[in-house]
């Protein structure tokens, strides 16, 4: 199979949309299936060129070992209070985009607009400053970068800012390589990424209670709901809103996880020019939120130096960022998942090699054990329940988990009381 049917059949599509952007005969469209948007090929038109599969970041991704191992790092926070208030973290992405567009350094930036999950999320070209606020915050749902990649490929003379998770960045880099293009004209702002969820998280939250009005907007993390890192905010068509604890998302996220994320090892977005995430290092952080920033390339450094007056900034250690993002544990799970996958697919892995920010030695010799197989099976079982909209099961799981957590807290309280 020389096209992305292989990716979708193995459930490894991240819905990045990049295959559709590179297809020379435009024969790929997207359909909503299993609570996500998946590519469908019109086989009457397909010329079997293999371009989509060569570009796809879903399958057989290989890490570039030449990437900088100890990059320059900072903890940063936007000085602009309005940007900071609406940001997920320290407002790096928005404040940088604003400064770079304002000063004519870049022609446009591709960002996600608004918080409506009824249709497929996508990045769109944003040039006006006034609407930047509506792009802020993290969407923990797959975002199509089809328009962004198509624009970049069709306009080699335009300077573009691309914002995306690790897999989307790999897809863009693959597409540029395939087109024989350098990435000189593109600034890649990479988001740290632990996972994205399918649209089942939105459908689940919609059904969590009987709301008085249809949902208009969902903010996964909003500082208006309890400060940084932010709780869930749901806005309704009748003008009302509710805030839900972030735990409502965390507790069920295993059911809503994208299957591809079970194998992903690139949490810190190693191919980006600048990688950004929440500052969980507990150093130079702030109750209003701040970001960890990794400067990975010369182009990233140049843009950062152009923008740095917009921020409060402190030097940070790469090792602190890595440990605050729990990379070691992530590596162990994800790498073993890759080996279990290879075991069941004639040695074909989802990801090959190891990103520079993870342990380089020993790991490739690991042997898959029964425990590893069982763990992945359990993760996949939960993931299938989300895909098949088994919200009743998920709610029962939530109730049990909440009861257990309540009991745990009660026992700790009793223990402390007895001790005092
Ligand atoms: C799916 C996902 C998982 C993440 N996981 C982690 C994590 O585990 N640890 C961590 O520290 N940080 C994580 N982050 C990053 C973090 O949540 C913030 O997005 C990041 O720190 C940037 O915040 P900011 O305040 O600079 O940006 P803001 O000013 O809030 O702007 C955010 C920008 O990102 C764009 N955007 C939002 N969601 C997406 C998306 N899915 N794809 C492409 N563009 C998008 C928006 O359009 C906006 O331009 C994750 C982000 C995402 C989207
Ligand atoms: S390129 Fe993206 S959307 Fe297309 S099959 Fe691969 S992961 Fe899915
Ligand atoms: S193989 Fe070529 S023509 Fe066929 S869907 Fe993929 S990119 Fe399009
Ligand atoms: S965890 Fe990896 S595969 Fe999943 S969305 Fe994030 S970068 Fe993409």
If you had to describe this structure to a student in words, what would you say it looks like?
With 420 residues, the chain is of the alpha/beta class. The chain has helices at residues 5-9, 18-22, 51-55, 81-86, 92-102, 146-154, 166-178, 200-207, 247-250, 253-256, 298-307, 318-324, 327-344, 370-387, 391-419, and strands at 28-33, 36-41, 61-62, 72-78, 108-112, 123-126, 160-164, 186-191, 215-222, 231-236, 241-244, 274-278, 291-295, 311-316, 351-352. The protein has an 8-stranded mixed β-sheet, sandwiched between helices. Helix 5 crosses helix 11. The chain is globular, with a radius of gyration of 21 Å. The model has no long low-confidence stretch (mean pLDDT 94). The structure holds flavin-adenine dinucleotide (FAD) and iron/sulfur cluster (3 copies). One iron/sulfur cluster binds at residues 4, 7, 13-19, 39, 56-58, 171. Residues 14, 165-167, 193, 195-196, 258, 260-261, 264, 266 line the site of one iron/sulfur cluster (SF4).
Helix and strand composition category: alpha/beta
As residue ranges, the low-confidence spans are: none
What ligands does this structure carry?
Answer: flavin-adenine dinucleotide, iron/sulfur cluster
Give the DSSP E fraction (strand runs of 2 or more residues): 15-25%
Report the count of strand segments.
Answer: 15
Mean pLDDT metric: 94
């Amino acid at each position: 199979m020389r096209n992305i049917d292989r990716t979708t059949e193995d459930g490894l599509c991240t819905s990045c949309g990049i295959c559709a952007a590179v297809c020379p005969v435009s024969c790929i469209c997207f359909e909503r299936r299993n609570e996500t948007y998946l590519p469908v090929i019109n086989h009457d038109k397909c010329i079997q060129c293999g371009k989509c599969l060569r570009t796809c970041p879903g399958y057989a991704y290989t890490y570039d070992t030449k990437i900088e191992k100890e990059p320059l790092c900072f903890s940063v926070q936007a000085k602009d209070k309005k940007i900071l208030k609406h940001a997920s973290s320290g407002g790096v992405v928005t404040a940088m985009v604003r400064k770079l567009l304002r000063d004519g350094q870049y022609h446009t930036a591709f960002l996600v607009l608004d918080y409506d999950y009824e249709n497929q999320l996508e990045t769109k070209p944003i040039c006006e400053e006034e609407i930047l606020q509506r792009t802020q915050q993290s969407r923990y749902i797959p975002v199509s970068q089809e328009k962004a990649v198509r624009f970049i490929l069709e306009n080699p003379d335009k300077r573009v800012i691309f914002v995306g998770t690790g897999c989307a960045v790999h897809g863009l880099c693959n597409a540029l390589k395939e087109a024989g293009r350098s990435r000189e004209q593109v600034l890649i702002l990479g988001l740290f990424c632990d996972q994205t969820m399918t649209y089942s998280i939105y459908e689940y939250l919609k059904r969590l209670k009987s709301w008085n009005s249809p949902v208009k907007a969902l903010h996964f993390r909003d500082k208006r709901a309890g400060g940084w890192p932010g709780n869930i905010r749901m806005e309704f068509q009748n003008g009302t809103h509710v805030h839900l604890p972030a735990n409502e998302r965390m507790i069920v996220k295993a059911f809503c996880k994208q299957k591809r994320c079970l194998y992903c090892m690139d949490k810190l977005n190693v191919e980006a020019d600048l990688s950004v995430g929440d500052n969980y290092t507990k150093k130079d952080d702030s109750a209003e939120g701040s970001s960890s920033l990794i400067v990975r390339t010369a182009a990233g450094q140049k843009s950062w130096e152009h923008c740095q007056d917009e921020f409060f900034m402190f030097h940070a250690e790469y090792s602190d960022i890595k440990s605050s993002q729990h990379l070691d544990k992530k590596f162990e799970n994800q790498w073993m998942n890759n080996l279990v996958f290879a075991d069941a697919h004639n040695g074909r892995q989802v990801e090959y090699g190891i990103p520079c920010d993870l342990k380089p030695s020993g790991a490739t010799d690991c042997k898959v054990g029964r425990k590893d197989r069982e763990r992945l099976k359990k993760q996949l079982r939960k993931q299938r329940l989300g895909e098949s909209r088994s919200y009743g099961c998920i709610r029962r799981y939530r109730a049990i988990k909440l009861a257990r957590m309540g009991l745990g807290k009660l026992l700790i309280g009793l223990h402390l009381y007895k001790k005092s």
